[in-house]
Amino acid sequence: MSVDYAVVIPTVGRDSLEVVLDALEHGVGPPPREIIVVDDRPEPGPLPPTHSARVLRTGGRGPAAARNAGWRAACCEWVAFLDDDVVPPRDWKQQVTSDLAKLGLDVGASQARIVVPLPEDRRPTDWERGTAGLADARYITADMAYRRAALVHAGGFDERFPRAYREDAELALRVLAHGYRIVNGDRVTTHPVREADFFASLRQQRGNADDALVRRLLGPRWRERMGGAPGRLPWHVATTASGALAVLCGLLGWRKAAVAAGATWAGLTGWFAAQRIAPGPRTRDEVVKMVVTSIAIPPAACAHRLRGEFRHRAVPVEGRQRRRVVPVADALDRLRTRGGPAAGRSRVPRAESSGGGSGVVRS
């Protein structure tokens, strides 16, 4: 049985894109009907040879918008998303078509198993351990094939997520809510650890702004629904508050209070740094990096979370939204039953987006 599929690759122009395209061009297995590369850099730039791929440009709107542009341009039953920094095996096309050919209509997506190679001669660094977490992550689009109908029903990726963070899991939960299943395929794709500079972990704290949006979309138990580990934000808040209190008390001349608050800040910061240093290689460079960034991360995380809460303040919180909408719907049903003003009108279905904007319309 042949599989009708397209491959969509969002990219920011990494050299590793050539590895992905080469696997698709020269690997074994049934070829996709189309390969779509979506260049999401703010300004167009050179790309590796794209062979027979079609190139779209989205102007730096983020991976969610890039993937939306890609799957909406594809006219296939299945859309396989690949990141531009993965290494598909030579027989990836054979593996993905084998995964998809055996799926029923109730399956909306097939997820690959992701392997992250780590050094064998030493302990992994903090950055390497973070990347290794992709191997156990649920719903990541590093290698994920979606039934196009499921993407249409769910409305696609929410483009309010500007980074490659949370947007994939949030879409998966909407696909599940539409009655589809998401299954694990047998194919295996490698995700190497990219090089990172000194402050890479500090820049990652921008994701706290996206957590504010997720909390509003999915409710207070969003981490549990996504299958994620408990976050560190409460500890970062405590660390930042104790540091700020120490400075304030010092300015006011309250020496004992300043010392107590400062000791609390130092203890929490030291505990955070120790947690990051202990499982690592403990080289001089790694220890210095962990100490410096452990001082900077708590206030950065808090600032980004506040920024996200402010930016998304108009998005209704999932639980509260439900409590408001359901009684109104019940009241309209009662009016129709009694022949009131709403009698005779057809019930308005929940709106679904077919494109544009964030790709999500919520009643």
Automatic annotation (TrEMBL):
- Gly residues bias locations: 354-363
Q: Where in the cell is it found?
A: Cell membrane
Q: Name one GO cellular component term.
A: plasma membrane
Q: Which domain of life is it from?
A: Bacteria
**What UniProt keywords are attached to this protein's entry?**
Cell membrane, Glycosyltransferase, Membrane, Transferase
Show the segment(s) annotated as Disordered.
336-363
Q: In which pathway does it act?
A: Carotenoid biosynthesis; staphyloxanthin biosynthesis; staphyloxanthin from farnesyl diphosphate: step 4/5
Which one of the record's GO molecular function terms can you name?
glycosyltransferase activity
Q: What is its main location?
A: membrane
InterPro entries in the record: Glyco_trans_2-like, Nucleotide-diphossugar_trans
| Domain Glycosyltransferase 2-like as annotated: residue spans | 7-109
Task: Note one Pfam family from the annotation.
Answer: Glycos_transf_2
Q: Which family does it belong to?
A: Belongs to the glycosyltransferase 2 family. CrtQ subfamily.
Explain the purpose of this protein: Catalyzes the glycosylation of 4,4'-diaponeurosporenoate, i.e. the esterification of glucose at the C1'' position with the carboxyl group of 4,4'-diaponeurosporenic acid, to form glycosyl-4,4'-diaponeurosporenoate. This is a step in the biosynthesis of staphyloxanthin, an orange pigment present in most staphylococci strains.
> What is the protein name given in its UniProt record?
4,4'-diaponeurosporenoate glycosyltransferase
**Source taxonomy:** Bacteria, Bacillati, Actinomycetota, Actinomycetes, Pseudonocardiales
